[in-house]
Amino acid sequence: MSEPTPAARGLYLDHAATTVPRPEARAALARWLDPTHGPLGNPSAIHRPGQRARVAVEEAREAVASALGAHPNDIVFTSGGTEADNLAVKGLAWAGAERGRRHLVTTAAEHPAVLEPARWLARHQGFELSVVGVGADGRVDPDDVLEAVRDDTAVVSVMAANNELGGVNDVAVIGAALRDRGVPFHTDAVQAFATVQVDVTGWQVDALSLSAHKFGGPVGAGVAYLRRGVPVAPVTHGGQQDRGVRSGTFAAALDASCAAAVSAAVVDRPELAARLRALSDRLADGLVAVEGVRRNGPSGEMDRLASHVHVSIDGVDGEALTFALDRAGLAVSAGAACGAGAQKASHVLEAAGVGGDAAVRLSLGWTSGAEEVDAAVEVFRETVGDLRLRGGGRVA
Ligand code: PLP
Question: Which residues does a 6 A CB cutoff place in the pocket of ligand 1?
Answer without folding.
Answer: 80-82, 85, 111, 113, 159, 163, 188, 190-191, 211, 222, 338
